[in-house]
Amino acid sequence: MRRLTIALPYLWLLALFLVPFIIVLRISLSDPALAIPPYEPIWSKTEGLRDFLSRFDIENFLFLTEDDLYWKAYLSSLKIAFISTLLALLIGFPIAYGLARAPVAWRPLLLMLVILPFWTSFLIRVYAWIGILGTEGYLNQVLLGLGLISAPLQILNTDWAVYIGIVYTYVPFMILPIYATLGRIDAELLEAAEDLGCSRIKAFWLVVVPLSKAGVIGGCFLVFIPAIGEFVIPSLLGGSDTLMIGKVLWEEFFNNRDWPVASAVAVILLLLLIVPIVLFQRNEQRQRDAA
Amino acid sequence: MKTLTTAVLTIFAAQAALAEEVRVYNWSDYIDEELLAKFEEETGIELIYDVFDSNELLETKMLAGGSGYDVVVPTGSFLERQVAAGAFQPLDQAQLPNLGNVWEVVTERTAQYDPENQYSINYMWGTTGLGVNVDKVTEILGEDAPIDSLDLVFDPANMEKLQECGVYFLDAPTELIPAALQYIGEDPNAQDIETIEKAEPVLMAVRPYIEKFHSSEYINALANGEICVAVGWSGDVLQARSRAEEADNGVTIEYHVPKEGALMWFDQMAIPVDAPNPEGAHKFLNFMLDAQNMAAASNYVFYANGNLASQDYLVEDVIDDPAVYPGAEVLENLFTVSAYDARTQRGVTRMWTRIKSGT
Q1: Predicted pLDDT of residue B17
Q2: Is B299 a domain residue?
Q3: Which among A91, A170, A184, B311 is placed 20 to 30 Å from A231, CA to CA?
Q4: pTM of structure
Q5: Which positions ≥6 away from B251 have C-beta within 8 Å?
Q6: B59 neighbourhood in chain A, CB within 8 Å
């Protein structure tokens, strides 16, 4: 029984991560073809290992280095994901803190309010922002009405709208893990800190922040990882010059029908995400062992 | 439990054809829905009708295989490539008694994509041209504004002034690049990347003045006066025209085929090679080939069709409108393009990204 419980998460990883990854990796090593499906498998049952090795190449990966479009798109995605995560943290932490300090009777209702947007389709919520941010949108109408601006602001179809969309969509993923760790902090620790002469602000920095580190890191990962590969938000809210790797991938797959290069882009994206996470985890583990 | 049973039954039905059904995948807003009910009534076949909004999406489903559809409607140049990939089955003419209704003017052009029209039948066709808010454009450019010329959108001097009232372009390299090539006197159907790249400076010069590249939002944007010029598809601009008329908002939209010539495209009905019910698919095609049915479809969506016999049943607003059925002189001036090969397509997509994003 115990073995089964340990095996389950691994089976889960195997079925939902490793197997799809290997399928994508396999396509990334094949050649495009005008066929169904539109690539030539690099390995078929009728071929031996020798045929496979003779045709093996990493041409699709080399192609990605020849055109600076891909690097620009990766870097721009990293930048957008990084800034969005930072903004989500700045907004999410105070909300989570407020939630954790709220009277116990209120908490279920407040938590409910955080989760409530998920009851509406993500797509519809992003579309709603088009109506809010457009030049004829509600935001501009209100600002014009108040006399704060004299001409409508161009927010929709710019990177600003992308940041707003990403932060809005993912901020609950930041709030929930931080709230979970903050909720576990023993209030007596804060009292003890104050008894020992800490100001409230100092106690916050010395006690609350370090103890919520796990939640902050978890929240940052939950925002950063989906944000970097985001496709829907930049294509609906961003301008035609918003460059993100998700859009590039879409173009490779749909416009160029080049499944092998699209797969290579996806493999690199995955490695860019996985490697830092694994290194980070290992470092954490080492620190924990040392302590 | 009931849904599960239905699902199981559907799977069995599809395989054993117990209760017959036909699955059709067509462009959105592209049919009179009464026709769908009429088909079910006449044949007793259950019709499952799904819609898409881009050729790329359809092509990805076709090339992935196992789409489960019996009839799909790609545009000619996309059909051409999918035929080469082996995505469709040849039509069985014996099952299509209404095939005699087709219009040669159209079939001789669609043969470019589908030699001898072996795999496909035309559903609708149209042109890519200029949607113009006449009042706004003449106010800005004067009474002699070139509203029927590509000068309107490819001459930077005009575009610089027009940006004030808003210009949208289709987000479709296979539409805009041929138009730009035609404008500078190159072959719009050029297949070599060196010639194709001559379109780049033309588009780059006007790029700063284009508000957005998008393939459907321009209908509403034109209709409510948010923009004054769009490079778009004939029927879509006509839809914008009728929406503006309905809204009675003082916006007058006109569609113009540029005098330099315009791209003519064809949406073709075809049967996927792995269609679950090819016989039912033929019944649907034959139903759509019926003169009155096809006329009803065109009367509803304001696009021309490839059915000569249907022209007797078309309303005047459709058959007599040169924006829908261009006259012989304009027809002469229209050009068609064929599919790019994979290498050229890559160059074209890359160039389009440069044009749109400046990178």
Answers
A1: 47
A2: yes
A3: A91
A4: 0.79
A5: B133, B135, B222, B223, B224, B225, B244
A6: 254, 257
